[in-house]
């Protein structure tokens, strides 16, 4: 996927959706424009440090575990506060199964975007390549989230909880033919049909209790992914602490 941003009609639609979402979160459900997509520009053979593979991607930053079949993934995070200028920018924070080396992702998480200088926060789930579906529940910067995805055969249960506001959304989906070959905890620059969109300045996103198949994600020698476009580093991922805690820091849109 190209990292070059072109102001196409699809990008304009995405901006319009954000504007509507600022006053009515449910509005984005009718005509979703953003996509949380499989890892793009991923270089899995970059280098190995202390049992952790270090890689780059044009749209992902975080950790991805591979090497087995996954039945669950979970993590907690604090919804970052975005610093907005007059530009329209986007950022997303989520857990998922698949996406690293496959063309499907089963995922749920939160959004922190800037629409013409205004911060817009929301939550969603997505069974990519289907479009994401936004939840109507209010989301604010600083909210504490916990999330779990579990799989039994071809059945997926995606749960997202805002422990600060006290709401939980549970979505159950059935889909066959998926590889279930990766589990990840990710900060992403979402995409539209025009490519990867400009990344919001989210400061630092802190993820805790990141597990896969009930174990610390660090037990899988996961891929540590930094987000970069050419020579520009867009977001950097910290080392794991305790095998399951890490942060992602914004560097550049």
TrEMBL record:
InterPro entries registered for this protein in UniProt: ConA-like_dom_sf, Peptidase_G1, Peptidase_G1_sf
Active site feature: 188
Pfam family, one: Peptidase_A4
Signal in keyword set: yes
Organism: Streptomyces griseofuscus
Keywords, comma-separated and alphabetical: Signal
Descriptive protein name: Peptidase A4 family protein
GO terms of biological process kind: proteolysis
Signal sequence, start to end: 1-22
Any one GO molecular-function label of the UniProt entry: glutamic-type endopeptidase activity
CDD domains, A to Z: Peptidase_G1
């Amino acid at each position: 996927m190209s990292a070059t941003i072109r102001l196409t009609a699809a990008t304009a639609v995405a901006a319009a959706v954000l504007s509507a979402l600022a006053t009515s979160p449910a509005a984005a459900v009718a005509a979703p424009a953003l996509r949380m997509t499989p890892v793009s520009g991923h270089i899995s053979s970059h280098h190995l440090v202390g049992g952790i593979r270090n890689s780059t991607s044009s749209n992902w930053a975080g950790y991805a575990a591979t090497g087995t079949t996954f039945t669950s993934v979970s993590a907690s995070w604090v919804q970052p506060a975005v610093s907005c200028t007059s530009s329209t920018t986007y950022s997303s924070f989520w857990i998922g199964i698949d996406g690293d080396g496959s063309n499907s992702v089963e995922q749920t998480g939160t959004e922190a975007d800037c629409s013409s200088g205004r911060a817009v926060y929301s939550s969603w789930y997505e069974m990519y390549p289907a479009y994401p579906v936004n939840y109507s529940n209010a989301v604010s910067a600083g909210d504490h989230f916990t999330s779990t995805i579990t799989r039994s055969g071809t059945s997926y249960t995606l749960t997202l909880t805002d422990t600060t506001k006290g709401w939980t959304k549970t979505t159950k989906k059935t889909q066959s033919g998926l590889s279930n070959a990766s589990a990840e905890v990710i900060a992403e620059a979402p995409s539209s049909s025009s490519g990867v969109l400009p990344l919001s300045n989210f400061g630092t996103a802190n993820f805790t209790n990141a597990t896969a198949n009930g174990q610390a994600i660090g037990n899988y020698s996961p891929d540590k992914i930094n987000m970069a476009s050419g020579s520009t580093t867009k977001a950097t991922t910290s080392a794991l602490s305790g095998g399951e805690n890490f942060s992602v820091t914004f560097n550049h849109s």
